[in-house]
Design brief:
The protein has one domain: Gcn5-related N-acetyltransferase (GNAT) (Aminopeptidase), CATH 3.40.630. The chain contains four helices and five strands. The chain has a five-stranded mixed sheet, sandwiched between helices. The longest helix has 15 residues. It starts with a strand and ends in a 22-residue tail after the last helix.
């Protein structure tokens, strides 16, 4: 496994997010990036394979904290991505371990994630990171009119 350097991003780190834009499903929108980085309880971590700060990020993970009256603070692993050329090198595992450390620092009671039942790579990654199958559930979605990119 490679040594992975993790950077926790925050307000003012928009350029780092945009530089890693190829890791996301779509290019990050400027206003949404700023809003995410400035929102309390929103976490974005980037993974790098060396200490050269000019090298590109090879992975990212985002997490969003939620507080519920009877469950306390939990952290949703919102999205995890690793550059295809750098998979199976410990990047995702390192990112999830660091996000778990963030959750512990924030007094979260746990982390949770949803993925497709046939996404074997994601299931293997999350299981290797200590996630287990929770209660059976169905994820439903309702799409709204898409807002214009900000």
């Amino acid at each position: 496994m490679a040594t992975v350097r993790i950077e926790r991003l925050g307000p003012g780190d928009e350029a780092a997010v945009h530089a890693a834009g190829g890791l996301f499903d779509r290019p990050p929108a400027a206003a949404w990036t700023t809003e995410f980085l400035e929102a309390p309880g929103h976490h974005l971590l980037l993974g790098f394979l060396d200490d050269d700060r000019s090298s590109p990020a090879v992975g990212f993970v985002t997490g969003v904290e939620m507080v519920h009256p009877d469950k306390g603070r939990e952290l949703l692993v919102y999205e995890l991505g690793t550059d295809e050329a750098h998979r199976h090198q410990g990047v995702a595992t390192a990112l999830l371990a660091e996000l778990a450390a963030v959750a512990a620092d924030r007094s979260c009671t746990g982390l949770w994630v949803a993925t497709e039942p046939d996404n074997e790579a994601a299931l293997a990654t999350y299981r290797a990171a200590g996630f287990g199958v929770g209660e059976p559930s169905v994820v439903l979605a309702r799409l709204l009119d898409a807002p214009a990119d900000r």
